[in-house]
Amino acid sequence: MFSNRITQLLKINYPIIQAGMIWASGWKLASAVSNAGGLGLIGAGSMYPDVLKEHIQRCKAATNNPFGVNLPLMYPDINKHIEIIIEQKVPIVFTSAGNPTTYTPYLKQQGITVIHVVSSSVFAQKAAAAGVDAIVAEGFEAGGHNGKEETTTLVLIPAVRDAVKIPVIAAGGIATGRQMLAAMVLGADGVQVGSRFVCTPEASSHLNFKEAVLNAKEGDTLLSLKKIGAVRLLKNNFFNAVREAELRGDDEEQLKNLLGRGRAKKGMFEGNVEEGELEIGQVSALIKEIKPAAEVVNEIWNEFENALTKPIL
Question: Quick check: is 198 in a domain?
Answer without folding.
Answer: yes
